[in-house]
């Protein structure tokens, strides 16, 4: 591939990283404060940019595996580290925000439940049980969101690690194919070692046989 292809990929990666950094800054502010309104659009935008950056990194990995220099390989490693850091931070913030929203919703529900209980003193026990069940379901839903967020973060990390190991394997295969002489030498060494072992075994067997004949002839 031409150097211009690598330059274009790296330029695209830097652009996506800059966009992600800008959106993550906004997302951090939302998580640290009390979000007003839905943050789904911002979260969706960040996830889309993360996927785009991951695809660019995979293309860069293919470029490096086809014969990139050591400097380019180090550059790719840095871009992968940036993607991994952004992915882990996003899902960590995502999980924290869900927990905060669930806690706020639960407190509001408890306040409502308490006020309703004061207004309807002596209300039917079945309705009260239903309200308690709704609170339990709400808590369970929050815990499930927390678990799913952690699972998504772990998945993102595993995908990055898989692409890294795949690139290493490809590069090793390329190096091996470019060094047929080394492979030939190694094969010759292994064959010579096998022959030496066979000869030593035959000599040892012959000596043992001769000693046995000598001992029997005495």
Could you characterize what this model shows?
Belongs to the GOSR1 family. It is a single chain. With 218 residues, the chain is mostly helical. It contains five helices and no strands. Helix 2 runs antiparallel to helix 3, helix 2 (40-65) runs parallel beside helix 4 (125-178) and helix 3 (70-119) runs antiparallel to helix 4. The longest helix is centred in the C-terminal third of the chain and has 54 residues, at 125-178. The N and C termini lie far apart (80 Å).
Mean pLDDT, all residues: 75
Number of distinct helices? 5
Silhouette: elongated
SSE-based structural type: mainly alpha
Q: What is the β-strand count?
A: 0
Q: What Rg, in angstroms, do the CA atoms define?
A: 33 Å
The proportion of residues forming helix, as a percent range, comes to over 70%
Low-confidence runs: none
What proportion strand?
A: under 5%
How far from one another are the termini?
80 Å
Please write the string of helix (H) and strand (E) elements: HHHHH
Q: Sheet with the most strands?
A: none
GO molecular function, one term: SNAP receptor activity
Protein name: Golgi SNAP receptor complex member 1
Transmembrane segments: 197-216
GO cellular component, one term: Golgi medial cisterna
What's the topology here?
Elements: H1 3-32, H2 40-65, H3 70-119, H4 125-178, H5 180-217
Helix pairs in contact: 1-2, 1-3, 2-3, 2-4, 3-4
């Amino acid at each position: 591939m031409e150097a211009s292809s690598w330059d274009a990929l790296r330029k695209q990666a830097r652009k996506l990283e800059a966009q992600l950094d800008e959106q993550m800054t906004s997302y951090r502010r939302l998580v640290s404060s009390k979000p007003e309104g839905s943050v789904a659009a911002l979260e969706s935008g960040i996830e889309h940019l993360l996927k785009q950056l991951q695809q660019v990194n995979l293309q860069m990995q293919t470029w490096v595996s086809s014969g990139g220099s050591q400097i380019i390989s180090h550059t790719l490693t840095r871009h992968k580290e940036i993607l991994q850091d952004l992915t882990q931070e996003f899902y960590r913030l995502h999980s924290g925000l869900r927990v905060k929203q669930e806690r706020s919703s639960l407190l509001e529900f408890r306040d409502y439940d308490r006020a309703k209980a004061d207004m309807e003193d002596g209300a039917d026990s079945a309705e009260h049980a239903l309200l308690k069940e709704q609170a339990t379901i709400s808590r369970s839903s929050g815990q499930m969101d927390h678990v799913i967020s952690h699972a998504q973060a772990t998945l993102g990390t595993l995908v990055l690690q898989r692409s890294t190991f795949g690139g290493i394997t490809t590069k090793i295969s390329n190096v091996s194919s470019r060094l047929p002489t080394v492979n030939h030498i190694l094969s010759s060494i292994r064959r010579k070692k096998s022959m030496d072992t066979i000869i030593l075994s035959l000599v040892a067997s012959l000596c043992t046989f001769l000693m046995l004949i000598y001992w029997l002839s005495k």
